[in-house]
Amino acid sequence: MEIRLALIGLGWAVRELWAPRILAHPGFRVVAVHDPDPAATAWAAARFPAARSLGDPGGLRSGDVDLAVVATPNHLHATTAIPLLARGIATFVEKPVCLSAAEAAALAAAERAGGARLLSGTAAWYRADVTAVRELLPELGPLRSMELSWIRAAGVPAPGGWFTERRRAGGGALVDLGWHLITVGMRLVSWPPVAQVIGAVSADFLARSGAEATWRGSPGGPERELAPKDVEDTVRGVLALDGGPLVGLTAAWASHAVRDVTRVVLEGADARAELTCTFGLSPNGVGSSLVLHRNGRAEPIEPPPETRGAEYRRQLDHLPALLTDPAQRGVASAEVIRTIDVIERLYRSAGAPRPTA
To answer: DSSP letters along 292-344, please?
Structure first.
């Protein structure tokens, strides 16, 4: 079965994550593209010459495509996806899927009204080492604590562009990196209710020279100099889960560290699993290391080897099943509602302002 795709928004996520894997995948064909930037449209035309260029995503109809991929700037995610869903077009929305609980509710309502499927995800869930952690869960016993952290050495994305402007990005490291950590961690424990949330944010590195993610690229021109830098570069939080472990969460675009490191640590009554790796595509990351601690011994676990970025191809491989499995209806929208609830509660606890229209 070939899946016809529409790519809405042709920025970094599509150029670096989606396009290379779609071009190499026999199960997908891009039939429509949209971006207000003529240079982006020209880029897409060179790679997907048979695709129709849309002047407006509103011109897309349910019979035209099997799935629309929304990868616009953050503040346009929900407003772009809602009318697509309402017209019966299955839609995958890049994270952060939305910026508020109200937007999450509107997305769920549009999904129900149009009868289409809302999809979202985090490719990290499909990493081989994260899968290995999932397989260790039965050996850990009842979970007592969980540590989720993604700390970059220097990784502020596009400083001075929309990524560092609260109004358009919705937030900083919490919205960008934290969305992935929350999704992975809460899926591991099957999304129990979150009873209490404590959070703190800071921005010690946001304007510091050398803190930029040069590997991500950045916009040029006046926008780079004039756009506000009013988001956090670091969030630290604690989540108390009903009947579950205490969760420590840290996400940082930049730090005093040398390398970009992600850690997922699960402490159980019977054993402790420690995964050290680097989510995403940073060239300044570390190799994957998974260790099971029990009875005073450390047992290295060897996940299957994989190339950097393999999880994005694996996420693509799973899309057909997510589109057709009746059990998946409403799953993504429910997860989005839970995720944005945790994010908003962390910001409220930290006293951080939220975006305004």
So the answer is: EEETTEEEEE-PPP--TTHHHHHHHHHHHHHHH-GGGTTHHHHHHHHHHHHHH
Three-state SS at 202: strand
Q: What DSSP designation does 164 have?
A: G
As a whole number of angstroms, the distance between CA 198 and CA 250 comes to: 12
The mean pLDDT of 233-249, rounded to a whole number, is: 97
| Angle 216-314-48 from CA coordinates, rounded to 5° | 65
What pLDDT is recorded for position 186? Answer: 98
Partners of 70 in the β-ladder? 8, 93
How far, in Å, CA of 204 to CA of 195, rounded? 30
User: Which whole-number Å values give the CA distances from 171 to 3, 50, 247, in the listed order?
Assistant: 33, 37, 21
**pTM score of the predicted model:** 0.95
Provide the Cα torsion 304, 309, 315, 317; round to 10°.
-80
Which pLDDT tens digit goes with each residue over 289-303?
999 999 999 999 998
* Lateral strand order in the sheet of 297-301: 194-202, 234-241, 246-252, 143-151, 261-268, 272-277, 289-294, 297-301
- Express as a percent the part of the chain with pLDDT over 90: 87
Q: What average pLDDT does the segment 153-170 reach?
A: 88
Tokens of 233: 């570069």
